[in-house]
Design a protein that fits this description.
Pectate Lyase C-like; 29 strands; 395 residues; Pectinesterase_Asp_AS; 5 helices; 11-stranded parallel sheet; mainly beta; secreted
């Protein structure tokens, strides 16, 4: 499918959703941004189309059975015992944009969570795109977002560094609490794609600033600085992450397992040595900081000519292991932020990676080809002290 057809399909689909008149708290300005966003989709992954999975007839407040003429509420599709009752350990709150439960927005459900609750609060989010800016404050620990699939449930907003007074504040979702979990949901920043070099165009899908956060089967969609892995220990499993310039950045200590990274960086002419993007920009500022990014059994593909990382801070630490790297990776692989004084302090390592972009013969001199002993420190959840907190998240 060519880009123009893709844009047209998505645009029509989004207008269909709004035309159904069931979107809760729709803001005209948001609609204008969404239209701008669809027009700019020519360089986006076709996976975005999957975010319009709706049968438009089912979006109406009522529908008819094929064998009956009696209208039936769409809310009748849910089992009678849903949501499950509150227990000593778990509270379930449900969000449905059609009004089938108590909450039509994600933020309203968060606001209803008791402060400093020791219970696990599961916020069950029905299929759909929820156009809202979501903030989870420090006072709301132990929250789980449970979506219906990362191509079915998404939270989206359109802030940029300019509109939000800084890149750090542009996240569509901002997590400041501890013990956060997300499953089968996507986080999107749908600000229009801007020309390279435009001041204030940075647009973050999610900022994760709380300790002990885990993401299973999630999607992260943005045009540039998509995932702000700010600080704390974090775990990502079977996730899809899309962006262009430093699209995974921050000073977190995080393990990415079985994740797919897709570069949307601008294509470069054959034979050109110019760089149009980077996967990571880690922000470790001193040797005393226990942080770093580890990517294990992942893949990196897409467009552009990119680096695996660049040293945003002088002690930046990133490792790629058992990862498939396509030919979009520049031969040097990494960048010291054009500051040679950082070459002795940054830690960039590769271990048993494959693909056309994994050839290390042309790597920058500070890049390390890790041996088994060196790599072992980054390959399992012990890197993020997972034995202390992560196992309990599966229950």
């Amino acid at each position: 499918m060519n880009p123009k057809s893709l844009c047209f399909i998505v645009l029509v689909a989004i207008f269909g959703v709004f035309a159904s008149r069931v979107v809760i708290n729709t803001i005209p300005q948001v609609l204008r941004y969404i239209v701008d966003f669809t027009i700019s989709l020519s360089s986006w992954s076709p996976i975005v189309v999957k975010f319009i999975p709706f049968n438009f007839d089912s979006l109406r407040r009522h529908r008819k059975h094929h064998d009956k003429d009696k209208p039936v509420s769409i809310c009748d599709d849910f089992p009678p015992n849903f949501p499950p009752p509150e227990t000593n350990t778990t509270l379930t709150l449900c969000v449905d944009r059609n009004g089938c439960f108590n909450f039509t927005t994600v933020q309203a459900a968060i606001d209803a969570v008791p402060n400093l609750s020791i219970k696990r609060t599961v916020i069950w989010i029905n299929s759909g795109i929820y156009y809202e800016k979501v903030i989870i404050p420090k006072t709301k620990p132990n929250i789980t977002f449970q979506g219906q699939g990362y191509t079915s449930t998404a939270i989206a907003w359109n802030d940029t560094a300019l509109s939000a007074n800084g890149t750090f504040y542009s996240g569509s979702v901002q997590v400041f609490s501890t013990n956060f979990i997300a499953k089968n949901i996507s986080f999107m920043n749908v600000a229009p794609i801007r020309r390279p070099g435009v001041v204030g165009a940075q647009a973050v899908a999610i900022r994760i600033s709380g300790d002990q956060a885990a993401f299973w089967g999630c999607g992260f969609f943005g045009a540039q600085d998509t995932l702000h892995d700010d600080r704390g220990r974090h775990y990502f499993k079977d996730c899809y992450i899309q962006g262009s310039i430093d699209f995974i950045f921050g000073n977190g200590k995080s393990l990415y397992e079985d994740c797919q990274m897709l570069s949307m960086a601008n294509p470069v002419a054959p034979g050109s040595k110019s760089i149009s993007g980077a996967v990571t920009a880690h922000g470790r500022s001193s040797a005393d900081e226990n942080s770093g990014f580890a990517f294990v059994n992942c893949s990196v593909g897409g467009t552009g000519r990119i680096w695996l990382g660049r040293a945003w801070r002088p002690f930046s630490r990133v490792v790629f292991a058992f990862t498939s790297l396509t030919d979009i990776i520049a031969p040097e692989g990494w960048n010291d932020f054009n500051d040679p004084t950082r070459d002795q302090s940054i830690f960039y390592g590769e271990y048993n990676c494959t693909g056309a972009g994994a050839n290390m013969s042309g790597r920058a001199p500070y890049v390390q080809r890790l041996n088994d002993t060196q790599a072992s420190l980054f390959l399992t959840t012990s890197f993020i002290d997972g034995d202390q907190w992560l196992l309990s998240y599966h229950t």
